[in-house]
Design a protein that fits this description.
Elements (H helix, E strand, L loop, with lengths): L3 H11 L6 E7 L8 E3 L2 H8 L4 E7 L2 E6 L4 E5 L4 E4 L9 E8 L5 E6 L5 E5 L1 H8 L13 H8 L6 H5 L10 H11 L12 H20 L43 E5 L2 E5 L6
Parallel strand pairs: 2-9
Antiparallel strand pairs: 1-7, 3-4, 4-5, 5-9, 6-8, 7-8, 10-11
Helix pairs in contact: 1-7, 4-7, 6-7
Length: 277
Protein backbone atom coordinates (compact mmCIF):
# COMPACT_ATOMS: atom_id res chain seq x y z
CA UNK A 1 0.00 0.00 0.00
CA UNK A 2 -0.69 2.38 -1.52
CA UNK A 3 -1.30 0.68 -4.87
CA UNK A 4 -2.73 1.88 -8.18
CA UNK A 5 -6.25 2.77 -6.90
CA UNK A 6 -4.91 4.74 -3.95
CA UNK A 7 -2.33 6.60 -6.03
CA UNK A 8 -4.90 7.36 -8.74
CA UNK A 9 -7.18 8.72 -6.00
CA UNK A 10 -4.32 10.94 -4.81
CA UNK A 11 -3.70 12.16 -8.35
CA UNK A 12 -7.34 13.08 -8.82
CA UNK A 13 -7.41 14.73 -5.42
CA UNK A 14 -4.62 17.16 -6.32
CA UNK A 15 -5.35 17.61 -10.04
CA UNK A 16 -6.73 21.10 -9.46
CA UNK A 17 -3.15 22.42 -9.06
CA UNK A 18 -2.69 22.27 -12.85
CA UNK A 19 -2.06 25.86 -13.96
CA UNK A 20 -0.63 26.88 -10.60
CA UNK A 21 2.89 28.24 -10.22
CA UNK A 22 5.38 26.99 -7.63
CA UNK A 23 6.46 29.88 -5.44
CA UNK A 24 8.37 27.97 -2.80
CA UNK A 25 9.79 24.58 -1.83
CA UNK A 26 9.86 23.87 1.89
CA UNK A 27 11.43 20.71 3.24
CA UNK A 28 9.71 20.42 6.60
CA UNK A 29 12.03 20.13 9.60
CA UNK A 30 11.43 16.99 11.60
CA UNK A 31 13.06 14.99 14.38
CA UNK A 32 12.34 11.88 12.29
CA UNK A 33 14.78 10.21 9.93
CA UNK A 34 14.61 12.23 6.68
CA UNK A 35 13.18 10.74 3.52
CA UNK A 36 15.07 10.75 0.25
CA UNK A 37 14.49 13.99 -1.69
CA UNK A 38 16.68 14.68 -4.71
CA UNK A 39 18.35 16.76 -5.99
CA UNK A 40 19.75 18.76 -3.07
CA UNK A 41 17.56 21.56 -1.71
CA UNK A 42 19.25 24.45 -3.53
CA UNK A 43 19.06 22.81 -6.95
CA UNK A 44 15.52 21.58 -6.32
CA UNK A 45 14.40 25.15 -5.56
CA UNK A 46 16.31 26.60 -8.52
CA UNK A 47 14.63 24.25 -10.97
CA UNK A 48 11.14 24.28 -9.41
CA UNK A 49 10.41 27.77 -8.07
CA UNK A 50 8.69 29.96 -10.62
CA UNK A 51 7.66 27.03 -12.80
CA UNK A 52 4.08 26.41 -13.81
CA UNK A 53 2.43 23.03 -13.33
CA UNK A 54 1.09 21.79 -16.66
CA UNK A 55 -0.14 18.29 -15.70
CA UNK A 56 -0.56 15.87 -12.83
CA UNK A 57 -0.14 12.27 -13.96
CA UNK A 58 0.17 8.80 -12.49
CA UNK A 59 2.87 6.36 -13.50
CA UNK A 60 2.34 3.01 -11.80
CA UNK A 61 2.36 3.76 -8.08
CA UNK A 62 3.79 7.28 -8.48
CA UNK A 63 2.19 10.72 -8.69
CA UNK A 64 4.01 12.84 -11.28
CA UNK A 65 3.78 16.64 -11.37
CA UNK A 66 4.84 17.92 -14.81
CA UNK A 67 6.39 21.40 -14.99
CA UNK A 68 6.49 23.79 -17.93
CA UNK A 69 10.24 23.15 -18.16
CA UNK A 70 9.49 19.46 -18.90
CA UNK A 71 11.03 18.54 -15.55
CA UNK A 72 8.89 16.25 -13.42
CA UNK A 73 8.47 16.04 -9.66
CA UNK A 74 7.92 12.36 -8.93
CA UNK A 75 6.30 11.37 -5.62
CA UNK A 76 6.67 7.72 -4.56
CA UNK A 77 4.42 7.14 -1.54
CA UNK A 78 5.69 3.56 -1.05
CA UNK A 79 4.39 1.96 2.16
CA UNK A 80 2.68 4.88 3.88
CA UNK A 81 2.85 8.06 1.85
CA UNK A 82 0.20 10.58 0.83
CA UNK A 83 0.18 13.38 -1.76
CA UNK A 84 -2.50 15.88 -0.78
CA UNK A 85 -3.52 19.52 -0.68
CA UNK A 86 -4.55 19.86 2.97
CA UNK A 87 -5.50 18.03 6.17
CA UNK A 88 -2.54 15.64 6.61
CA UNK A 89 -3.18 12.94 9.23
CA UNK A 90 -0.64 14.70 11.47
CA UNK A 91 2.06 17.36 11.20
CA UNK A 92 4.86 15.17 12.56
CA UNK A 93 5.18 13.11 9.39
CA UNK A 94 4.82 15.97 6.92
CA UNK A 95 7.96 15.87 4.75
CA UNK A 96 7.65 18.37 1.89
CA UNK A 97 5.52 21.40 1.16
CA UNK A 98 5.29 23.07 -2.25
CA UNK A 99 3.89 26.59 -1.94
CA UNK A 100 1.66 27.51 -4.88
CA UNK A 101 0.15 30.62 -6.48
CA UNK A 102 -2.20 31.42 -9.37
CA UNK A 103 -4.54 28.56 -8.54
CA UNK A 104 -7.24 27.35 -6.12
CA UNK A 105 -4.84 25.53 -3.75
CA UNK A 106 -2.12 27.30 -1.75
CA UNK A 107 0.08 24.22 -1.32
CA UNK A 108 0.90 20.63 -2.27
CA UNK A 109 1.96 18.34 0.59
CA UNK A 110 3.87 15.08 0.82
CA UNK A 111 3.21 13.14 4.04
CA UNK A 112 5.08 9.93 4.83
CA UNK A 113 4.80 8.03 8.07
CA UNK A 114 7.35 5.23 7.76
CA UNK A 115 10.00 7.34 6.09
CA UNK A 116 10.25 5.11 3.01
CA UNK A 117 8.79 7.59 0.53
CA UNK A 118 10.89 9.26 -2.17
CA UNK A 119 10.58 12.59 -3.99
CA UNK A 120 12.66 13.22 -7.11
CA UNK A 121 12.87 16.18 -9.48
CA UNK A 122 13.82 14.60 -12.79
CA UNK A 123 14.75 15.89 -16.22
CA UNK A 124 12.99 14.25 -19.18
CA UNK A 125 15.99 11.99 -19.78
CA UNK A 126 16.21 11.01 -16.10
CA UNK A 127 12.47 10.35 -16.01
CA UNK A 128 12.67 8.07 -19.06
CA UNK A 129 15.56 6.17 -17.49
CA UNK A 130 13.90 5.71 -14.07
CA UNK A 131 10.24 5.35 -15.05
CA UNK A 132 10.30 4.33 -18.70
CA UNK A 133 9.75 0.90 -20.31
CA UNK A 134 13.07 -0.43 -19.07
CA UNK A 135 11.98 0.07 -15.47
CA UNK A 136 8.19 -0.13 -15.52
CA UNK A 137 5.87 -2.29 -17.57
CA UNK A 138 2.62 -1.04 -19.10
CA UNK A 139 0.07 0.33 -16.67
CA UNK A 140 -2.35 -2.23 -15.27
CA UNK A 141 -5.27 -0.17 -16.60
CA UNK A 142 -3.72 0.21 -20.07
CA UNK A 143 -2.25 -3.24 -20.78
CA UNK A 144 -4.14 -5.49 -23.20
CA UNK A 145 -4.89 -9.18 -22.47
CA UNK A 146 -2.36 -10.16 -25.13
CA UNK A 147 0.41 -7.98 -23.67
CA UNK A 148 -0.35 -9.25 -20.17
CA UNK A 149 0.06 -12.85 -21.29
CA UNK A 150 3.14 -11.93 -23.31
CA UNK A 151 4.73 -10.28 -20.27
CA UNK A 152 4.00 -13.06 -17.77
CA UNK A 153 2.81 -16.14 -19.62
CA UNK A 154 6.20 -17.85 -19.94
CA UNK A 155 7.22 -17.25 -16.32
CA UNK A 156 7.51 -20.20 -13.95
CA UNK A 157 6.65 -17.99 -10.99
CA UNK A 158 3.36 -18.29 -9.15
CA UNK A 159 0.89 -15.92 -10.80
CA UNK A 160 0.28 -13.94 -7.58
CA UNK A 161 4.02 -13.29 -7.25
CA UNK A 162 4.38 -12.42 -10.94
CA UNK A 163 1.58 -9.83 -10.81
CA UNK A 164 3.66 -7.85 -8.29
CA UNK A 165 6.52 -7.44 -10.79
CA UNK A 166 6.41 -3.77 -11.74
CA UNK A 167 8.68 -4.36 -14.73
CA UNK A 168 5.98 -6.59 -16.23
CA UNK A 169 2.85 -4.61 -15.34
CA UNK A 170 2.81 -1.44 -13.25
CA UNK A 171 0.50 -0.59 -10.39
CA UNK A 172 -0.61 -3.87 -8.79
CA UNK A 173 0.47 -4.66 -5.24
CA UNK A 174 -0.22 -7.35 -2.70
CA UNK A 175 -3.79 -6.43 -1.82
CA UNK A 176 -5.20 -6.09 -5.32
CA UNK A 177 -3.36 -9.14 -6.67
CA UNK A 178 -5.33 -11.31 -4.22
CA UNK A 179 -8.59 -9.60 -5.14
CA UNK A 180 -7.96 -9.88 -8.89
CA UNK A 181 -7.17 -13.59 -8.78
CA UNK A 182 -10.28 -14.31 -6.70
CA UNK A 183 -12.51 -12.56 -9.23
CA UNK A 184 -10.73 -14.44 -12.05
CA UNK A 185 -11.09 -17.78 -10.24
CA UNK A 186 -7.35 -18.53 -10.50
CA UNK A 187 -5.34 -20.11 -7.68
CA UNK A 188 -2.55 -17.72 -6.58
CA UNK A 189 0.01 -20.53 -6.58
CA UNK A 190 -0.55 -21.60 -10.19
CA UNK A 191 2.56 -21.13 -12.31
CA UNK A 192 2.14 -18.53 -15.04
CA UNK A 193 3.26 -20.89 -17.82
CA UNK A 194 0.44 -23.30 -16.89
CA UNK A 195 -2.29 -20.66 -17.37
CA UNK A 196 -4.24 -20.79 -20.62
CA UNK A 197 -4.91 -17.83 -22.90
CA UNK A 198 -8.58 -17.91 -21.81
CA UNK A 199 -7.52 -17.70 -18.16
CA UNK A 200 -5.19 -14.79 -18.91
CA UNK A 201 -8.16 -13.04 -20.50
CA UNK A 202 -10.11 -13.69 -17.28
CA UNK A 203 -7.28 -12.27 -15.19
CA UNK A 204 -7.17 -9.19 -17.40
CA UNK A 205 -10.93 -8.66 -17.11
CA UNK A 206 -10.73 -9.10 -13.33
CA UNK A 207 -7.86 -6.61 -13.16
CA UNK A 208 -9.93 -4.01 -14.97
CA UNK A 209 -13.00 -4.69 -12.80
CA UNK A 210 -11.25 -4.69 -9.42
CA UNK A 211 -9.01 -1.67 -10.02
CA UNK A 212 -11.83 0.48 -11.40
CA UNK A 213 -14.11 -0.54 -8.51
CA UNK A 214 -11.40 0.39 -6.03
CA UNK A 215 -10.84 3.77 -7.70
CA UNK A 216 -14.60 4.41 -7.55
CA UNK A 217 -14.50 3.82 -3.78
CA UNK A 218 -11.31 5.93 -3.48
CA UNK A 219 -9.03 3.08 -2.45
CA UNK A 220 -8.66 0.94 0.66
CA UNK A 221 -7.91 2.20 4.15
CA UNK A 222 -6.60 -0.74 6.16
CA UNK A 223 -6.45 -1.29 9.92
CA UNK A 224 -3.39 0.94 10.38
CA UNK A 225 -5.42 3.87 9.02
CA UNK A 226 -2.46 5.47 7.21
CA UNK A 227 -4.07 5.76 3.78
CA UNK A 228 -6.51 8.67 3.55
CA UNK A 229 -8.39 10.04 0.57
CA UNK A 230 -9.07 13.73 -0.03
CA UNK A 231 -9.84 15.88 3.03
CA UNK A 232 -8.47 13.23 5.39
CA UNK A 233 -11.35 10.79 4.92
CA UNK A 234 -11.01 7.03 4.66
CA UNK A 235 -11.17 5.19 1.38
CA UNK A 236 -14.16 2.90 0.99
CA UNK A 237 -13.00 -0.18 -0.90
CA UNK A 238 -11.96 -2.05 2.25
CA UNK A 239 -15.68 -2.56 2.81
CA UNK A 240 -15.88 -4.46 -0.50
CA UNK A 241 -12.85 -6.76 -0.23
CA UNK A 242 -13.72 -10.28 -1.33
CA UNK A 243 -10.76 -12.13 0.20
CA UNK A 244 -8.03 -9.76 1.35
CA UNK A 245 -7.76 -9.76 5.14
CA UNK A 246 -10.74 -12.13 5.44
CA UNK A 247 -9.04 -15.41 6.40
CA UNK A 248 -11.48 -17.71 8.19
CA UNK A 249 -14.53 -15.85 6.89
CA UNK A 250 -16.92 -17.32 4.28
CA UNK A 251 -16.05 -16.75 0.65
CA UNK A 252 -18.63 -14.33 -0.81
CA UNK A 253 -18.92 -16.57 -3.89
CA UNK A 254 -18.82 -20.10 -2.42
CA UNK A 255 -20.47 -19.16 0.90
CA UNK A 256 -19.77 -22.59 2.43
CA UNK A 257 -15.97 -22.35 2.01
CA UNK A 258 -13.77 -20.11 4.14
CA UNK A 259 -11.06 -17.80 2.84
CA UNK A 260 -7.53 -19.03 3.51
CA UNK A 261 -4.27 -17.19 4.06
CA UNK A 262 -0.91 -18.42 2.76
CA UNK A 263 2.50 -16.73 2.54
CA UNK A 264 4.20 -16.22 -0.83
CA UNK A 265 7.63 -14.59 -0.93
CA UNK A 266 7.07 -13.22 2.54
CA UNK A 267 3.72 -11.62 1.69
CA UNK A 268 0.23 -12.64 2.79
CA UNK A 269 -2.01 -14.04 0.07
CA UNK A 270 -5.74 -14.61 0.54
CA UNK A 271 -7.81 -16.95 -1.62
CA UNK A 272 -10.77 -19.32 -1.62
CA UNK A 273 -9.93 -23.04 -1.96
CA UNK A 274 -13.38 -23.64 -3.41
CA UNK A 275 -13.48 -21.28 -6.40
CA UNK A 276 -9.71 -20.87 -6.91
CA UNK A 277 -8.56 -24.48 -7.39
Amino acid sequence: MPELPEVETMRRGVAEIVGSRIRGVHRVKSRLHPIKITPAAAEFRRRAVGRRIVAVERVGKRVVVVLDSDDRIVFEPRMSGLVLLSDPPDEEHLRLRLLLSDGPAPQLLFWNQRGLGVVQLLSPRQFARKCGPGKLGPDALAVSPELLQQALGSSRRAVKVALLDQRAVAGIGNLYASEILHVAGVHPGRACHRISAARWASIHAAMEKVLREAIYYEGSTLADGTYRAKRNREGGYQNHHRVYGRAGQPCPRCVDRDVRRIVQCGRSTFYCPGCQR
